Amino acid sequence: MSYPGYPPSGGYPAFPGYPPTGQESVYPPAGQYSYPAVPGGYPPAGGGTYPAAPPSAGYPGAAGYPAPGGYPAPGSYPGAPQAGGMPPYPGAPTGPGFGVPPAGPGFGGYPQPPAQSYAGGGPAQIPVGYPGGQASSPMPGPLVTCDSYFQPAAMVQCTQGTIQAAPNFDAGRDAEVLRKAMKGFGTDEQAIINVVANRSNDQRQKIKAAFKTMYGKDLIKDLKSELSGNVEELILALFMPSTYYDAWSLRHAMKGAGTQERVLIEILCTRTNQEIQEIVNCYKSEFGRDIEQDIRADTSGHFERLLISMCQGNRDENQTVDYQKAQEDAQRLYQAGEGKLGTDESCFNMVLASRSFPQLKATVEAYSRIANRDLLSSIDREFSGNVERGLKTILQCALNRPAFFAERLYYSMKGAGTDDSTLIRIIVTRSEIDLVQIKQMFTQMYQKTLATMIASDTSGDYRRLLLAIVGQ
Fold it and tell me: What is the pLDDT of residue 167?
């Protein structure tokens, strides 16, 4: 099964930061949602200072807004894939992934990522303390790497993964370690964990190729024969090229009886344009199917239209905020929902599917002033079911993507049972992108560390591998 060129060898571009330099704005006070606000914002690049905020284009000054009743917590994912169900797949190098939103003041209590360093490549700054008197501690291990993305301020957006490329990497040596771990009676799971949890996805692809060259055997088949259950699913996910894993997850979510709508939302509503375009192409080349046709066959109505819009990978990615357009879009959304009897769903689809994330953030602010209600709260009132979840996911990513994933992780483990496929998918897909920031948001939002919750909710080699990826 061929797998040409996914993702390109250059890697994904960094996801641009927001709000752009000089266009910061003051957001409503904490208390609108159940999340606490985070202090801090953009550090100045190169030691300079930021210019004053642009003209407000008629907005009134920041003021308190009525609490909408709290940010509703979604349930756990239905229909998690069964362990051992992963198909064989080809190897291809993957890039470092896109970046994460830089820090800013908390919007309406929805937490913002910790402040980051720009253009200097230094380590991210950690918030001084968390609500409830719990102080944060430095995150050990991960190295901050930067992907160039020429924004208006010519800043460099940094990403923070818990996994980075191992120095002095030797694919042949790692292949030999894995071969010895699986040879003879029994399996040395710890040796396998030590390798896969400390190599980048690109390095894992090279190990896979070296294993076949050295031993004439398929590493994935050998791993499947030695492992089982959740640890097998986790290790196989780690060895999948990133784009293929997203495409595979989407195919699995629509294959057979029933549809895992939350998986479709999680992937299609959070990825960058380039990533979505690569996923769509990979889906076609690897599974011989058109993803739009599969979406139409498995979904319907306004939810179907939202997902088809997401599949285009055509969101505006201009980081300059047009405050006049934000005001106009906010007025348009108000007239399409709260300001009329019934709801014009196509208007919400048009704005949320096409505007850049910084632009949407400004629109959320403007909407609060016009409607005297938060836009997330209005979507709660005007929509229901999967289309509501999809629209809210887009807005949550515009406000703070790490907090969105922290929430998904929390609800994958909260209560009786664990949604292991969701836990695995988010840990694996964010491990080289923004898992450090997700961990920080998790601690702030739930007053416990992600590692603590994983340790109490999992066991055995599965627990050890997850904790090795997450980092202590």
Answer: 94
- Token pair for residue 117? 């360093």
What pLDDT, on the 0 to 100 scale, is given for residue 110?
Answer: 53
Give the residue carrying structure tokens 């430095």: 138
- Residue 263 to residues 31, 259, 317: CA-CA distances in angstroms? 29, 9, 24
Q: Please state the separation of Cα 275 from the chain's center in Å.
A: 12
- Comparing CA positions, the residue from 455, 380, 466, 384 lying closest to residue 424 is 466
- Degrees to nearest 5, angle at CA 164 with 430 and 9: 80
Q: Spell out the residues 6+ positions from residue 90 whose beta carbon is closer than 8 angstroms to its own.
A: 1, 2, 3, 241, 244
Which structure tokens are listed for 173?
A: 């040596």
The pLDDT of residue 416 is 85
- Please state whether the peptide bond connecting residue 19 to the residue before it is cis, i.e. omega within 30 degrees of 0: yes
pLDDT, residue 136, reads: 34
**Ranges of H-type helices in 183-241:** 189-196, 201-215, 219-226, 229-239
b/e burial code for range 379-396 (CB count within 10 A of at least 16 → b): bbebbeebbbbbbbbbbb
Angle at CA 392, nearest 5°, toward 403 and 256? Answer: 100
**Letter for the amino acid at 104?**
G
The tokens of 399 are what? 């406000």
Residue 147: in which H helix or E strand, if any?
strand 145-147
Q: What per-residue confidence (pLDDT) applies to 186?
A: 77
Q: What is the pLDDT of residues 285-299, one digit of tens each?
A: 999 999 999 999 999
Query: Is 61 exposed, middle or buried, given 0-12, 13-18 or 19+ CB atoms closer than 10 A?
Result: exposed
Is 145 in a helix, a strand, or coil? strand
Count Cβ atoms within 10 A of the Cβ of residue 209 and give its class: 0-12 exposed, 13-18 middle, 19 or more buried.
middle
Q: How far apart are CA 357 and CA 397, in angstroms?
A: 8
Residues of the chain with pLDDT under 50: 1-109, 113-158
The single-letter code of the amino acid at 113 is: P
3-class SS of residue 112: coil
Peptide bond into 113 cis (omega under 30): no
> What is the model's pLDDT at position 142?
38
Q: For residue 220, list its beta bridge partners.
A: none
Task: Give how far the C-alpha of residue 263 lies from the chain's centroid of Cα atoms, to the nearest Å.
Answer: 12
d(Cα 223, Cα 212) in Å, to the nearest integer?
A: 13
- What is the C-alpha separation between 332 and 160, in angstroms, rounded? 37
Q: In terms of DSSP bridges, do strands 145-147 and 157-159 run parallel, antiparallel, or are they unpaired?
A: antiparallel
Mutual angle of helices 291-298 and 273-287, in 10-degree steps: 90
pLDDT in the model for residue 259 = 87
Backbone angles phi, psi at 337, to 5 degrees: -130, -90
In angstroms, the CA 185 to CA 290 distance is: 44
